[in-house]
Design brief:
heterodimer, A: Alpha-Beta Plaits, 2 domains, 5 helices, B: mainly alpha
């Protein structure tokens, strides 16, 4: 993955951010992402992102857990090693409900968290380029990807007119790499910038 | 625009004219200064208790369960009492973070992080008791169902004790995931404002490279909602299954259908009490009174009086059923062994009644609910009472069984049994002290999320909308 050129604008008010997102999109610019210190409801729709299907994945994991528990215990207690427990039936489904339930929850929770980390590319030791350190404090950082046709100065002026603060230009790698946050590190050493 | 109308009648959840940056600053700055003398004192005491506990466990492993005064009749004593007590305490966190999330209780945001941490530590303590009670602890892995070289010999899936293994381990895992996923954005906040290299590196690793992307937040919210939905039945199932350990047996005093709801109510009761014990001190020491307000304390006290009364109702129902069933063993346990003050353990029963049923009634008064001293004192009393409840249930049902020749009239613990218990308290507080020092004790991102709805300064600005019609308001602010 090559480096790309971005124009970054910060906002400190939701009331300014939302109209700006609308204007930027109507003007035909491509919003790479908006980094915010907390979830802003409705921003995903304003940016035109689609709904996440993470909950569907969670449902599938949950069903897997249910199936694992029921099939596993049934096989163990009726086929592999039928145990006589007080003369009760080998296929004692009601007594298996607690474990079935627990495994459903366990599979769904573990599966979803792992999927979440995979989709968001997060793991211990992962490092990414952060466009502004206050994106996790009090600023909403809008990042716009530049193409060959983008006139950077126009775009900067446009963002400033929309209420953007600290508008600047950054060349960065959009992906992730393993690295440490106390060091200046980048995965790609060569300085060529790719433009779409 | 993201304003949601909040009734002016409701108390603000965040006091003062805060900006987003103030929130970060207030909650994260205690992490960035060296610990206080008080912290070192508290932490050292906790570690000392923990060491005593470790030595007690060492003696138990070396010499066997006989180190605790357990015998054939009283096979479960302090250890299982402590187990149930800790699991109960470990219920408040997930209740606050999951059930109150689904019920849209805004006040949970101020206390959920610390309560969840407390839950995880309490479950860690709880887990110690059944594990070391196994005696030959090196065979503990026998409870795991895997194709083994012993047959394969499987555990008994119809046994409530095995259900417990699954319930507690699932509960621990899910609570941990829920807690840690919520911590990621806050670790990122600590990382991005870190001044020292070491802090930047460690919190960088802990934050998993979180950057606050809108797409990530969208997935994050979906994840927390589903985890809350999963954790809600889970938290109810855990203490239900713990109660099955007793309810599915044929011991008078245990063999009752009221146990699951009674145990769950008791768990929430003691869990909230422990949250109060910790937060009343934490908010003061870390100066977080603007975020954990008297309103939060009062809301939790309301939960305490409700669940305490449910528990009291269950005690009376049990007594009634002891008579109504006309079963002489039941009657003996409830009316002779427990409700009789002059029986060997009568004092424990009345101690439990006084601590759990009578004293929380003080919270019917608003002034008491909002008094920090009363809250702290009561939170300790409630947990003492809840410990007695488990002791009463376990020991008074066992010590006089069907065969009078094997009655064990006076079971009392040894120093090593007590040492194990104090060791678990040491473990709990060691973990909590570390948490309070190195973790953001309040969910920073969640507070920022509700700041503009329930922050004091923002609520005042909403006064103009009071006279507005709902439709007008919605038209202006909905997007």
């Amino acid at each position: 993955m090559a480096k790309k050129k971005f124009v970054v604008a910060c906002f400190d008010e939701e009331a300014v951010l939302f109209p700006a997102v609308k204007k930027v999109r109507t003007a035909g610019y491509r919003i790479h992402d908006i980094y915010t210190p907390f979830p802003i409801h409705g921003l995903d729709h304003a940016m035109g992102l689609r709904e996440t299907s993470l909950h569907t994945a969670g449902f599938i994991y949950g069903i897997t857990g249910t199936a694992t528990a029921v099939s596993g215990i049934s096989w163990i207690f009726t086929r592999d090693w039928p145990m006589n427990i007080g003369g009760k039936p080998h296929f004692a489904l009601p007594a298996w409900i607690p474990i079935t339930f627990e495994l459903t929850v366990l599979f769904a929770a573990v599966g979803m968290v792992m999927t979440f980390c995979y989709l968001c590319q997060m793991a211990p030791g992962v490092k990414k380029h952060h466009f502004h350190p206050r994106a996790t404090d009090d600023l909403f950082v809008m990042v716009i990807e530049c193409t060959a046709k983008t006139n950077v100065d126009d775009l900067k002026g446009f963002l400033e007119s929309q209420g953007g603060l600290e508008v600047n230009e950054q060349v960065a790698e959009p992906g992730w790499w393993f690295g440490r946050y106390d060091k200046e590190q980048q995965l790609i050493r060569d300085t060529t910038v790719e433009v779409a | 625009m993201h304003i949601r109308y909040e009734s002016q009648v409701r108390e603000p959840l965040v006091y003062g004219e805060k900006t987003y940056h103030d929130v970060t600053q207030d909650i994260i700055s205690p992490i960035e200064v060296p610990p206080s003398k008080l912290w070192y004192i508290g932490f050292s005491i906790s570690v000392l208790l923990l060491c005593f506990g470790i030595y007690s466990v060492y003696r138990e492993v070396t010499y066997g369960i006989g180190q605790w005064n357990l015998n054939k009749t009283v096979g479960w004593g302090w250890d299982i009492t402590n187990f149930v007590w800790w699991v109960g305490i470990g219920h408040a966190g997930t209740l606050i973070s999951a059930i109150l999330l689904l019920f849209r209780q805004g006040w949970r945001t101020g206390v959920n992080r610390a309560a969840e941490a407390m839950t995880i530590f309490a479950v860690m303590c709880a887990g110690q008791f059944p594990i070391w009670h196994m005696g030959r602890v090196w065979m503990a892995f026998f409870v795991m169902p895997y194709p083994n070289s012993r047959g394969p010999l499987w555990p008994n899936f119809n046994s409530p004790l095995l259900w417990d293994v699954f319930a507690i381990s699932t509960y621990f895992t899910v609570s941990l995931l829920f807690w840690y996923s919520g911590l990621l954005p806050d670790f990122a906040s600590v990382r991005d404002r870190a001044r020292t290299k070491l802090r930047k590196m460690l919190y960088g690793v802990a934050s998993f490279g979180w950057n606050g992307s809108t797409k990530h937040w969208q997935r994050f919210e979906s994840l927390s909602l589903v985890l809350a939905g999963l954790a809600t039945p889970l938290v109810l199932s855990v203490h239900t299954i713990v109660s099955f350990d007793f309810a599915t047996s044929v011991i008078p005093g245990w063999h009752t259908t009221i146990f699951p709801p009674y145990f769950v109510a008791g768990a929430i009761f003691s869990g909230f009490a422990m949250v109060q014990t910790l937060l009343v001190i934490t908010r003061r020491v870390l100066g977080l009174q603007d975020y954990i307000t008297l309103g939060h304390i009062e809301a939790m006290n309301k939960v305490i009086v409700l669940t305490g009364s449910i528990v009291g109702c269950a005690y009376l129902t049990e007594l009634f059923m002891g008579w109504y069933s006309q079963n002489k063993y039941e009657g003996y346990t409830f009316w002779y062994s427990r409700a009789n003050l002059f029986s060997p353990y009568g004092w424990a029963y009345y101690g439990m009644m006084a601590c759990n049923v009578l004293s929380p009634q003080i919270f019917w008064f608003r002034k008491m609910r909002r008094s920090l001293k009363v809250t702290f004192f009561m939170s300790v009393i409630v947990n003492v009472g809840m410990w007695f409840e488990r002791f009463v249930i376990i020991v008074t049902s066992l010590y006089r069984d069907y065969l009078p020749s094997s009655w064990s009239v006076y079971y009392h613990p040894t120093i090593w049994e007590i040492g194990f218990f104090t060791g678990s308290i040491g473990l709990f507080f060691t973990c909590y002290f570390l948490f309070a020092k190195y973790f953001p004790v309040i969910a920073v991102a969640e507070i920022k999320h509700v700041l503009k709805q329930t922050g004091e300064g923002f609520k005042e600005r909403m006064d103009v909308h009071e006279g507005q019609k709902v439709e007008e308001f919605a038209h202006e602010h909905a997007h």
